[in-house]
Amino acid sequence: MTATTRSFDPTALHDTLCMALELGEGRWKLGFVCGFGGNVLRRQVVARDQHGLLAAIAWAREKFALSRPTRVVSLYEAGRDGFWLHRFLVARGIENLVIDSSSLLVDRRKRRAKTDRLDLEGLLDLLQRHLAGSSKKVFSVVRVPSVEEEDRRHLHRELLSAKRDRTRVTNRMKGLLANQGLTLDLKKEVPAQLAALRQWDGSALPEGLQARLAREWERALFYDGLIDRLESERREQLRRVSDPVLKQVRQLNTLRGIGTNSAWLYAMEFFGWRQFRNGKEVGALAGFAPTPFQSGESEREQGMSKAGNRYVRAMAIEIAWGWLRFQPQSALTKWYQRRFGHREQATAQDRDRGTGAQALDRAVALPRDGRAARGSVAQTGSASPLNSPTPRERRRSIESDRVRAARPRCRVSDDTAR
């Protein structure tokens, strides 16, 4: 099967109106162009003014003398304005692209000129090259979720935020007490501990510090209640709501080593609304893609790109470590132990790389394991491509065997062995 290539055709855009948007808090700057090498028209509208935006598009049509059913293609960078603007433009018959700003190539000089005018011209040029069929990728297009798919993310993201806020409050309390040479055990009755705390000379804590600690503890109790309500709502949805995405959460939750937090996050952020064709797409979206550096004789690996979904990437690392504990007989755990668990020359960096590879393997295999696991404990990883050692690891293994064979043998008593 031959690969399909796009032919570059600049003349295909002579009757297409291209629009780029620079979104600000107070005002939006718009740039329009029709055809390669044409004049760039600029316009400003009040931020979030839908009628003003449509009026600016009509004004650009009139300036370029374009007929009414003209094709209009726009783009803007993903940011705090979200996807409502994309849905608005698509509903008005305008083709729109939401692009990842970090995928844009920029000047590598230490100081470079950056203005909204230059940004608009650059975005318009990239948009025209993209539409004309450039053989080189000019930017990355963001996959826009539906309203329902985007709404599903709020529960677990609010839960994560509440947990982080509670940790921030309790750490602040511990820091305030550490300034006085005191400690606090959150597992015990906190108000009673605060009342019994004394300074180095046996005197009570200052009134201002006591009042602040009491207010901080009230905030911690508030976050405790919020976390309980959110977790209760999540359990209720899992118990009563019949939804394909929640069905996937239940399937993933049947795996040993996968809990409700990880199953919910994987389904809502990844597999509940994205369609992946291969493992490379999963790894790239999770930020596990490698970033090699090769220039002349210099060649090294810079590690994971970390350019994907940070929620999934963090959870995948946690699952990778949990998999070693809760799935000790799986092929993936045996692979990790064989390469990094008992090798004397395995460094912490090697183990981190192994954990990253294990996390990627779990992210790719979890949907398949969840479907196959209904009611049973899945032992997966036998078909993983990670089971074949790399040439570098073969050399290390051979060197380890040589070092081990050259050591003088000595008898170890049973007590010492135990």
Features:
418 residues, alpha/beta, Nucleotidyltransferase, domain 5, five-stranded mixed beta sheet, two-stranded antiparallel ribbon, 7 strands, disordered C terminus
Question: What this model shows, in words?
Answer:
- Helices cover 51% and strands 11% of the residues.
- The chain is an alpha/beta fold.
- The chain has 3 domains: 10-144, Nucleotidyltransferase, domain 5 (2-Layer Sandwich), CATH 3.30.420; 153-241; 249-405, no CATH class.
- Strand 4, helix 2 (84-91) and strand 5 (95-99) form a beta-alpha-beta unit.
- Helix 10 crosses helix 13, helix 11 packs across helix 13 and helix 12 runs antiparallel to helix 13.
- Residues 373-418 have low confidence and may be disordered.
Structural class category: alpha/beta
Q: What is the H-and-E element order?
A: EEEHEHEHHHHHHHHEEHHHHH
- Rounded to the nearest angstrom, the distance between the terminal CA atoms is 61 Å
Kindly state the mean pLDDT as a whole number?
A: 84
Question: What layout of secondary structure does this protein have?
Answer:
Blueprint: E1 16-23, E2 27-34, E3 41-46, H1 50-63, E4 71-77, H2 84-91, E5 95-99, H3 116-132, H4 147-151, H5 153-178, H6 190-196, H7 207-240, H8 244-253, H9 260-271, H10 279-286, E6 290-295, E7 298-304, H11 310-326, H12 331-341, H13 348-372, H14 391-406, H15 414-417
Parallel strand pairs: 1-4, 4-5
Antiparallel strand pairs: 1-2, 2-3, 6-7
Helix pairs in contact: 5-7, 6-7, 8-9, 8-13, 9-11, 10-13, 11-13, 12-13
